[in-house]
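ok, trying the design again with the full structure, not the truncated one.
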């Protein structure tokens, strides 16, 4: 690729973004009381000099404070996979908060059992507990795994993503051994004291780490997502399950992003059998919600332990977890929005998106790859597609990524800012997908000169 041309195009699109968005630029400049000038520092992970500021959002559309409306394939990095403010969730939240009253009373609601039963139907795990985020669900699942196994360490895949869980911020270093993930902030200890790591799709490396006998649980995404989609090779996930059982290690499937694979995530789509499952973001339809599920056997083993404080100070709960508002939103999302039929629609659109991107890439003879996980599609600047997280991280090209993101945003299309991911929601249309295909093709044509 002609990098000089790329730099010129990136400068042009950056200037256009500043010209088009004076109110967002001013709001960012005036946000002196916010750490990093944004409510949450990740919001600075955006192409251009400042983020666009949200005015309104509905379905598959967001509008910024400068009046530009976008086809939204980012969808809050999965948090809005149900679409923005879906009607059923809006109604349920209004009823719970405004009509019935009360969001958090430290009292259960009948909605919770409905949600637990539905999560069991979808994912197969028998017992469920709620959190506000998938990060907390992962933290609590880890504590339970350590408690029941008596082992100290957690194993994750290199460049996997499980929120801000300290144990997960480890990668395979150049020497093949575990090392802190670059950029980690304020680690409480050397991560190798708490964690082991293996490359995704590498069963030999996994077995070498499990053979130490100190791993309480393997915490993994069934497909890597937050480093670009990395799909499991044939037999890999079966091998993971066999090895964890062989070495007495629990298996935790984090389905927070891989929920895109279908109504029951990869666990149902691929007939997986984890001991625990964690999920967050999308299940609340935009309201903060998370959950973790346990197999019946594991739940019984934990509840039978009189030395574990699962009610008060055991470190597996929070005052707002399972609150009435979040649970009502989760019920509405699962019952009326992210239904089996909705996933069929989203899957078809993601396949259409994949076909459009692949055609454009092939037309220009680019050495890129396209991967899809149900309703989620992503392209990578590498061919063949990366098979490990480390390979996927090495394939990143920040300048090229920024150009494509700015080019699309300046023409009314948003992708997930962390990488080149597009997610479908129930309100996404074929026309939305085809619009992206056309604009993406035009961007590649400009790159080609």
């Amino acid at each position: 690729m002609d990098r000089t041309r790329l730099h010129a195009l990136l400068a042009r699109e950056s200037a256009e973004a500043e010209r088009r968005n004076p109110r967002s630029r001013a709001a960012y400049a005036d946000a002196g009381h916010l750490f990093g000038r944004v409510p949450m520092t990740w919001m600075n992970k955006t192409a251009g000099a400042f983020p666009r500021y949200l005015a309104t959002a509905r379905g598959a559309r967001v509008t910024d404070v400068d009046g530009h409306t976008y086809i939204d394939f980012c969808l809050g990095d999965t948090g809005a996979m149900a679409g923005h403010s879906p009607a059923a969730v809006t109604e349920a939240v209004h009823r719970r908060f405004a009509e019935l009253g009360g969001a958090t009373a430290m009292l259960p609601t009948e909605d919770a059992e409905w949600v637990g039963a539905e999560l069991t139907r979808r994912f197969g795990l028998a017992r469920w507990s709620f959190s506000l985020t998938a990060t907390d669900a992962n933290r609590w699942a880890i504590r339970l795994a350590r408690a029941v196994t008596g082992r100290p360490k957690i194993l994750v895949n290199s460049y996997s993503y499980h929120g801000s869980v300290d144990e997960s911020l480890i990668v395979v270093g150049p020497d093949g051994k575990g090392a802190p993930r670059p950029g980690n902030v304020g680690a409480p200890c050397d991560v190798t004291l708490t964690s082991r790591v293996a490359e995704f799709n590498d069963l030999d490396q996994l077995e070498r780490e499990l053979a130490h006998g100190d791993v309480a649980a393997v915490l993994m995404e069934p497909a890597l997502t937050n480093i670009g989609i990395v799909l499991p090779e044939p037999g890999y996930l079966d091998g993971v399950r066999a090895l964890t059982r062989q070495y007495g290690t629990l298996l935790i499937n984090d389905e927070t992003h891989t929920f895109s694979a279908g109504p029951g995530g990869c666990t149902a789509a691929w007939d997986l059998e984890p001991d625990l499952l964690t999920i967050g973001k999308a299940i609340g339809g935009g309201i903060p919600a998370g959950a973790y599920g346990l197999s019946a056997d594991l739940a019984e083993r934990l509840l039978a332990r009189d030395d574990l404080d699962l009610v008060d100070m055991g470190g597996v709960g929070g005052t707002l977890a399972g609150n009435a508002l979040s649970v009502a939103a989760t019920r509405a999302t699962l019952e009326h929005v992210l239904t089996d039929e909705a996933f069929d629609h989203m899957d078809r659109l993601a396949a259409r998106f994949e076909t459009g991107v692949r055609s454009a890439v092939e037309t220009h003879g680019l050495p890129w790859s396209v991967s899809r996980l149900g309703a989620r599609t992503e392209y990578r600047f590498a061919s063949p597609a990366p098979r490990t997280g480390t390979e996927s991280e090495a394939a990143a090209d920040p300048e090229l990524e920024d150009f494509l993101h700015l080019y699309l945003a300046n023409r009314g299309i948003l992708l997930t800012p962390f990488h080149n991911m597009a997610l479908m929601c129930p309100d996404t249309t074929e026309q939305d997908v085809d619009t992206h295909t056309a604009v993406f093709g035009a961007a590649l044509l400009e790159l080609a000169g």
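Keeping the full-length input from now on. Residues 284 and 330 are 4 Å apart (CA to CA).
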